[in-house]
Inverse folding.
């Protein structure tokens, strides 16, 4: 009976982590470029009481293995990189990726990070930077006397300078993709860094094979579905509740045993 107590406790712990994941998804429903997470569960060790094929009573052979499971655990918390809703903003520095790929930015420590959040700004030197001030890589610098900015679907950045009638190209925005984006490490601020499981980063121009194109004046919203998360929350709550009920039932059975003494 003690085994049932510990088994149900593992189920409660797993559902608690599941609820934490769901809560984080819902908290970021309005975060630009946010990618939801999903908890994956698996069973844990089994206690083998009898193995199939062993001798049974009367010289017969045990037809099946007798095993008792010892609960569940969270095997992984995986980022789901499906595309979020594309929202029009009209801001010339807002960019959405229509398809696969990440923007590449340079962190303060010199390391590269990757993001789908295209809400870019200009810093004091005219560089395109993220909301935290991290510059795009390679750098795109907008001249101070630029009167308009045009970013093409294939990454070309052109500006119209004051007093000129023809646009001037100041750079090209590139994208990066990975063989296994689910292996990226979330760093917060909608940034990800590569890990040994992502595969080597592949950089290319938007619109090339394997890369999405850019949409100026648009942002990619979170891919969190409120209705889906609410359903998952209810299912997780009920699973937590039934595991707590199993613990209560096991405790009552132990109490009955004690009363027999």
């Amino acid at each position: 009976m003690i085994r049932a107590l510990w088994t149900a406790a593992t189920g409660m712990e797993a559902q608690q982590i599941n609820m934490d994941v769901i809560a984080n998804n819902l908290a970021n429903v309005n975060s630009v470029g946010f990618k939801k997470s999903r908890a994956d569960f698996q069973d844990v060790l089994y206690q083998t009481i009898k193995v199939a094929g062993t001798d049974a009573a009367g010289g017969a052979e045990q037809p099946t293995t007798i095993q008792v499971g010892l609960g569940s655990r969270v095997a992984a918390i995986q980022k789901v990189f499906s595309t979020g809703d594309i929202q029009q903003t009209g801001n010339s520095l807002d960019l959405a990726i229509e398809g696969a790929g990440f923007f590449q930015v340079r962190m303060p420590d010199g390391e590269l990070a990757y993001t789908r959040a295209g809400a870019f700004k200009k810093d004091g030197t005219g560089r395109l930077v993220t909301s935290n001030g991290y510059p795009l890589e390679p750098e795109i610098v907008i001249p101070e006397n630029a009167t308009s900015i045009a970013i093409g679907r294939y990454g070309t950045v052109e500006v119209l300078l004051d007093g000129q009638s023809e646009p001037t190209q100041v750079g090209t925005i590139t994208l990066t993709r990975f063989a296994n984006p689910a292996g990226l490490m979330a760093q917060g601020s909608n940034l990800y860094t590569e890990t040994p499981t992502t595969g080597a980063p592949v950089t290319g121009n938007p619109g090339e094979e394997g890369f999405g194109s850019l949409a100026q004046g648009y942002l990619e919203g979170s891919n969190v579905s409120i209705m889906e998360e609410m359903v998952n929350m209810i299912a997780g709550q009920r699973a937590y509740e039934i595991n707590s009920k199993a613990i209560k039932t096991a405790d009552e059975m132990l109490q009955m045993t004690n009363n027999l003494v």
